[in-house]
Amino acid sequence: MFGWPAKLMFRASWGKHRCAHLVYATLTLSLFAILWNMFLGHFLRQQKFYEYFTIPLFKNDSINPSDYMLKNDSPTESATLVTSTCSPWHTLSTDPTLSGFIRNGNLFLTLEGDWWHQANYLTKTLPYGIKGSEQIIRQILIKTKSHMPAEIDSLQCKRCVVVGNGNSLRNSLLGAVINKYNVVIRLNNAPVRGYEEDVGNKTTLRIFYPESAIKDLAIENNPDTLFVLIPFKAVDVNWLKAILYNESNIVDGFWRKPASINTLDPSKVRMLSPLYLQQAVETLLHQPHSFYKAKSLWPTTGFLAITMALNYCDEVDVAGFGYPLNQKNGLIHYYDQLKMAMVDTSVHNVTQEHVYLKKLQSTGIIRYLT
Question: What's the pTM value of the predicted model, to 2 decimals?
Fold first, then answer.
């Protein structure tokens, strides 16, 4: 490859114009080197040779850091979280932990379909059915939509992370990792602004009920965030309908006065199907008809979000889950100083939820990031 320039230099050393030939050879070699580098660089870009490196952010042994890598396509492109292969949890061997669980990807109530005529919806009131709330729900669905974004629905492997509100996210530095998931599910009124380094700032779905709604939706969410109402009781759907139709605010019938949301884009609103509340309570937690007992046990929003993710997503990771159950002074949230001793958890069986989620973790169905 370099024979002829070398030969040229050798001859030049014996000629009359040795210096001129030396300069000419040097320039020729330099030009050849530049052209070769340009060709090699173009080839490498075309063949997509990436430089990979692992993210040293995972503290929990249940996560293999080698599964998560950053891909650098070019200095001008942002790094993208990728996994070496898709590992759909539902391809795992049948485990008794999910006995009776049947996946259903139709997360939201819709005007279409025959579900309106199914007895399990029409013979039960909220939260297990729509009896007595049919007309209000129909009015809501006329205004809103019932599908996930097409760019997510079309993915062959849907990677989701459910971001809890737990104190384990404090100083976790997981923000950049969380932002790389296809679907980021957040809960209630958990803040993002000011905590981006630990929790990220991407929100695909925000799951809420009236008492946990955020008044100014633009502060803690993205322009394309979908807001998913959990309809626990009839007054919840009345509250949402009043907002969508610019009617007087409904404030009675709640355990805490709900936020008065002034601007809510109907196209960004969804209603969670009662199927998932029943599935969470009866199929997963094995608490049949708990909503209709004198002392009801309500699943946490986080547990419902994981139930949704198991139905829709191929890979389900969770972050910020877990209460300091045996620590009265243990902090609960990443964003405040609320302690375990200050919280009345009588409506949630957080211990049972914790035990069940750990079973899902041990079988590889979900993975903990914190």
Answer: 0.78
